[in-house]
């Protein structure tokens, strides 16, 4: 194991919050949350989702930060340092985050093309289909996005990740506020948005709970080592619980604001992933100064994606640096090339390689479904079990309640959530989800 003394770290508390919020806020908030909400009964889904975030997501985020902060190691060593023989849990997270990178970089690449094409008014009907199924353009934008991530990573923890987060996150907040104010200015916008937020409990099913848990874990980057590695970079004295609460609050605010922006555009009848890339450009094209708003929207999506991809990349890179003794540069290139290769297959699977299917799904959907429906719940359950049952009780309590942690009165409640509520609830929902998935095959 490489020495942990000279590994980098964030300069302060704000940097810690911005970087971790950057990991959390991503395509999950702006691209995925609105359409899942729309498909699952609007306000009804949001209520279930909020319960999942508070009862499952927040304790797990505190747990993951704590494992990183306590061990000051990459995800694999972190678990095995706390309990011998548990490194596989970190490894499983890294494999999952690598698979997520495979399709996440592709969508991230689209945002670049869309920001540019919106500015030049080049998006017409059928553009999405034509662009995403073509061979070269989406690949080139995907590679550019991977390289953007790469160069931030080789800048180091403070010189790269921290600096980028401090620059990008305020810009992201400014753009989303501008878009929200503009959307709610229009009376029709207000009416359309409130229509979607009205709870419709008839759309709630068992699947809704699986979607809510999956979304809560995905948006908080739970179980993938990304939050763990950031926790390991927290400076002494960083308040773990406070940071986790800030991250959850910012993440939820951005998700709900994104939903308001999208639904106030009056696109509630559009389903699935096409909401952001097909329906929104159409709406923008009818607005005064539509190019400007559309460019801002896709810039927002791109910034959110970039602050997430750097955390994914860093989690895997840190493993190669510390566990395999590589230089940061070499490790980063390795991850970059690996991500490019996998993303190439995902991007081509939408066009040229659409015949290659696994259980009836193309490579892109396989990566998304496998990580989202299977790996995320399992990693959530295992992280809760690790912290609740495997970590030595006194050590875990000392870390979680250390200065800046949870206060002594709240601790038993958080421990109960991690020990019982997370594993039991997520397992039940997970089993039903798997049965449902097999039924549909
Ligand atoms: N939280 C990110 C989003 O909502 O888009 C996605 C993500 C980031 C997942 C980092 C996993 C991860 F390690």
Descriptive notes:
The chain is mostly helical and 441 residues long. It has a single domain, classed as Hydantoin permease (Orthogonal Bundle), CATH 1.10.4160.10. It is built from 18 helices and no strands. It has helices spanning 13-24, 27-39, 43-71, 75-82, 87-119, 127-133, 136-154, 157-185, 187-197, 206-219, 226-232, 240-264, 274-285, 290-323, 328-348, 363-390, 393-401, 411-440. It is globular and about 60 Å long. The protein starts with 12 loop residues before the first helix and ends with a helix. Residues 1-5 have low confidence and may be disordered. The structure holds 4-fluoro-L-phenylalanine. 4-fluoro-L-phenylalanine is lined by residues 23-24, 26-29, 97, 100, 218-219, 221, 224, 226, 308, 311-312.
Order of helices and strands: HHHHHHHHHHHHHHHHHH
Radius of gyration: 21 Å
Q: Which secondary-structure class do the elements indicate?
A: mainly alpha
Number of E-state strands: 0
Assembly form of the protein? single chain
**Overall domain count:** 1
**Integer average pLDDT:** 94
- Could you say which overall geometry the principal axes of the C-alpha atoms support? globular
The number of helical segments is 18
Q: What is the topological layout?
A:
Blueprint: H1 13-24, H2 27-39, H3 43-71, H4 75-82, H5 87-119, H6 127-133, H7 136-154, H8 157-185, H9 187-197, H10 206-219, H11 226-232, H12 240-264, H13 274-285, H14 290-323, H15 328-348, H16 363-390, H17 393-401, H18 411-440
Helix pairs in contact: 1-8, 1-11, 1-12, 1-14, 2-10, 2-12, 3-4, 3-10, 3-11, 3-12, 3-16, 3-18, 4-5, 5-7, 5-14, 5-15, 5-16, 7-8, 7-14, 7-15, 8-12, 8-14, 9-12, 10-16, 10-18, 11-14, 13-14, 14-15, 16-18
The protein binds 4-fluoro-L-phenylalanine (PFF).
